[in-house]
Write a structure and sequence with these properties.
single chain, 248 residues, alpha+beta, Immunoglobulin-like, 2 domains, five-stranded antiparallel β-sheet, three-stranded antiparallel β-sheet, 3 helices, 35% helix, elongated, transmembrane signaling receptor activity
């Protein structure tokens, strides 16, 4: 849980001291400056007489680290057992446990036991070497990357933009499906009508065009009928013209 330390907020220096620490002061600590944030360190405060001294910062793979079991009332060396994630990992008559050539498998929660007293657990973080060479990749699960507010806003706008285009594509697809279904249904209706009444004209030619065509056919028929009824009259009109042409 993130909690702001009021008594250190107005400190003019880069350090923050906690006087008369209590068990409630245990937890993860870090400092922030504008949009930047430091690595978190774990601080454990116990009311018991046994504590475990361990590095608060991550240790790089391949290096060595020494864990110390300290007794509040005893300054001399004493035998201590060391546990990692609840399992016994080693014992020491000097109260110190050295792990040579750290690996990622050594990362975890450590505690020590002296007699019947047990220290609080402390997290040992191990950094892995980068595959590109020389770099170090932090593996502490407590560490967090703080992005500028502008980057978060750009990410949000990008998500909205993608969602908008996806919605448009879905709407267009649904419209095409509806139009296709309507056209298919219309074709089925026309086919059913034609199968039920084959003599019914399904020609989509307008009635006005048909009427004009029928009128033209009727006019042609009347002209032929009149011409066939008066053949003698036509010949009489033609003969005088022929006679006059001969007399001339």
């Amino acid at each position: 849980m993130k909690k702001f330390i009021q008594r250190c907020s107005n400190s003019p220096t880069l350090t923050c001291s906690i006087q008369n620490s209590f068990v409630s002061d245990s937890g993860q600590y870090w400092c922030e400056n504008a949009e930047q944030r430091s690595n978190a360190v774990s601080i454990n405060v116990t009311a018991g007489s046994v504590i475990l001294e361990s590095p608060v910062h991550p240790i790089m793979e391949g290096e060595a680290v020494t864990l110390g079991c300290r007794h509040k009332t005893t300054s001399s060396n004493f035998t201590a057992d060391f546990y990692k994630d609840g399992r016994l990992t080693g014992s020491s008559s000097t109260g110190n446990l050295t792990i040579r050539r750290l690996s990622k498998s050594d990362e975890g929660l450590y505690k020590c036991m002296s007699g019947h007293e047990v220290s609080p657990e402390s997290w040992l973080a191990v950094r892995s070497k980068s595959n590109t060479g020389g770099g170090v990749t932090p593996e502490n699960p407590v560490n967090e990357v703080v992005f500028p507010a502008a980057n978060k806003q750009m990410t949000f706008l990008l998500h909205i933009y993608v969602l908008l285009w996806v919605s448009i594509a879905v709407v267009l697809t649904l419209q095409l499906l509806v139009l296709g279904l309507l056209y298919w249904k219309r074709q089925l209706v026309l086919l059913e009508i034609q199968m039920t009444d084959p003599s019914k004209d399904l020609d989509p030619v307008p009635n006005k065009v048909k009427k004009n065509k029928d009128a033209a056919d009727s006019l042609s028929l009347d002209f032929e009928t009149n011409h066939s009824k008066n053949p003698e009259k036509d010949e009489d009109e033609f003969l005088p013209q022929t006679f006059q042409s001969t007399h001339w």
